[in-house]
Amino acid sequence: MIPISVVEFGTEQEELVLGVLRSGRIAQGELVEQFESRFAELCGTKHAVAVNNGTTALIAALSVLGLRPGDEVLTSPFTFAATLNSILEVGATARFADINESDFTLDPKSVEESLSDSTRVLMPVHLYGQMADMDSLMAIAERHDLVVVEDAAQAHGASVNGRAAGSYGIGAFSFYATKNITTGEGGMITTDDDELAGRLRILRNQGMRARYDYVMVGQNYRMTDLQAALALPQLDRYRESVQKRNEFAGILTERLSGLRGVLEPRVALGREHVWHQYTIRLTPDSGLSREEFVAKLAEHGVGSGVYYPKLVFDYAPYRNHPRVITSEVPVAAHIAAEVVSLPVHPHLTLDDVKKVADTVRVIIEGQG
Ligand SMILES: *Cc1c(COP(=O)(O)O)cnc(C)c1O
Q1: Is 149 helix (H, G, I), strand (E, B) or coil?
Q2: Tens of pLDDT, residues 60-104
Q3: Hey, which of 55, 150, 308, 311 would you mutate to test ligand 1's pocket, going by the most ligand atoms within 8 Å of its Cβ?
Q4: Predicted model pTM
């Protein structure tokens, strides 16, 4: 089976982890600090603050904004539950705008139409490794005095016109096992704002400025050096790994183009996609349901994933939630019913990539 994602570490990681174990200092230490400064470099930001996972990164980013009950966060309905859960966790209200068909991220026009008098935060989700249309979204944020928090959990090192994810607003990243850079569990918040970075560091550490000098109600959101040890060697080779994803995505698109009922993912002008996922749309022209298609892929030894099968608010915990304001989002609803992600990760061989594309072709053309 060609898997949809693979976790693979080398001797560098083994040695770094052993070093941490033998040092006896296994909580947050020097390696976390190194990881932060290297990650800030990747994002082109002044600060990066490491935390224990990506959901926490979103929660921490929202927490330091001083939102009040009734304040709204406007986000995408086509995302992972963590985006919505983080908004609810800080006591804010979630509202949704529709997405673009071309890039699966927030549609600026719909954002403009969905704003209310209570909207304080705009939270674009850089889905599958491609950033949202940040020039348009930042202009809207500017006009309406909104803080931008980027859910960049899937977009490490992605950029728009050379400017990286996490450098437009406050960036929130995840290092969960399946992400482009992984520490098992882990997260990072990026910002250029000294004051905000300071607050995030204090919040992360029980609200302490120095030992027992409590200046806010805090949390324990710390990352450990064991996790940072896993990340550092990945950062050394991250550009090459994205290069590979990009090459594989190119091959998939070339081999799938023109296939009835399959729409390949598009990269908008000026955007560098980091291909966290390679996601096609399976339209009714294919003559197959998504379930049939996914099952046939598996029969042929090709793993796949559906991210995400439904709108994020279309689940029982959110349906009658007093702080979840749902709206008509026809584009997102349509796309959620059609997406299928195919393997594109850097641990594939060229033969694997060709097999993935050829298998899709055989299934669609009715020979499989
Ligand atoms: C993975 C992910 C998160 C949450 O990250 P965790 O590290 O799993 O908590 C948030 N948003 C999106 C879009 C994600 O893909």
Answers
A1: strand
A2: 999 999 999 999 999 999 999 999 999 999 999 999 999 999 999
A3: 55
A4: 0.98
